[in-house]
Amino acid sequence: MAVEYKHKRYFRVRGNDSSISTFSSTADANTKIGFTSVYSTSSPTKTEALADSGKTLVVCYEFNDKNEQIAFKNAIDGAWAESPHSPFNPADATDTVEHFKTEWLAKDGSVGNTKNL
């Protein structure tokens, strides 16, 4: 994998009462979020961590090259265009999964650009 083709995405789950779920582990977060296969486009290496006292799952996606990263982004953008819920299949169908921030990383691992969604 190449350091220059990495970015982090931040996810949380909001209940129908507007409360934000707390994850007990990254496995729990993955279960509650229910990522669909689009998040495996280009077979990225994934590093996961919890943040915000367990309320946020941060996933760092790393790719071999620029084309793989672009294909990944385009696949996810396409899934969002089809339906605001299509990239996820949450464990509780009444929950809403929020992808609320993306950080594009520079070669040295620092944040080169941030997009708050």
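Second entry:
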Amino acid sequence: MNYLAETLNELTKEKRKGYGEYPKCPECGYAMVWTFSFRYKEWACLPCYVTAPMFHGFDKVWRNIKYMDAKKRLWQRDLSVIARTEGGATCAVCNDKTCKWCKDADNKNYKFTYWKTRIN
């Protein structure tokens, strides 16, 4: 029965307007978010602390693109701090570290909302 469902899923792929395939987090099973916050890891699931490279080999799940964009906006603050502190990103907003994103990244006591742990 599972094979039949997967086959039908493949046949109707083209008809899914507004939906996309995303890697399935091996820990929680939810779709991972595309981000450049981590070095050499383009996919992330912040609550589970799971990251994956672009070509990952994880199972994929169909999700609404608008929902995934909203999820990424929800995680934006944490992803910004991770990118500036761990990912080697530079700010595209300011040059003198005065924007709120840079201030969060410079704050050593910053408390992550979604990311459970930090890379050592």
